[in-house]
Write a structure and sequence with these properties.
The chain has 118 residues and is an all-alpha fold. It contains five helices and no strands.
Length: 118
């Protein structure tokens, strides 16, 4: 779900509508790449969306998902919280944060155990 506000132009102008349409097109490209597992291409697309629409909670949420897949837990949480701040009622954001808590905590616990054994 792409944010409806463009941070670049006044909401009712033709330029703003064109930018939203372009952001939505790029967002769909990113979604396709993410679904295919092409994380670098998906990340690039979502970052382009944010250049056109800095208030896109969905782009931040998807960047969080990408970082979770990479097991970059701190980066994932940062993006997920950015998305949550922009759209606290976004469907799935709390689920992803819950997954972060589950996966991130397990990974950190495993790391501490490994370090403790050395």
């Amino acid at each position: 779900m792409l944010s409806q506000q463009s941070s670049v132009s006044a909401p009712g102008t033709r330029a703003a509508k064109d930018m939203r349409a372009e952001a939505q097109r790029i967002f769909q490209e990113g979604q396709t790449e993410l679904n295919r597992g092409e994380l670098e291409a998906a990340e690039a697309a979502f970052r382009r969306v944010l250049k056109l629409d800095a208030s896109s909670a969905s782009a931040h949420a998807n960047l969080g998902v990408i970082e979770m897949r990479r097991k970059q837990w701190d980066k994932a949480l940062l993006e997920l919280h950015r998305a949550e701040r922009l759209d606290p009622r976004m469907i799935g954001i709390h689920l992803n944060i819950g997954l972060w808590n589950s996966e991130g905590r397990t990974t950190r616990r495993q790391l501490r155990l490994r370090i403790g054994r050395q």
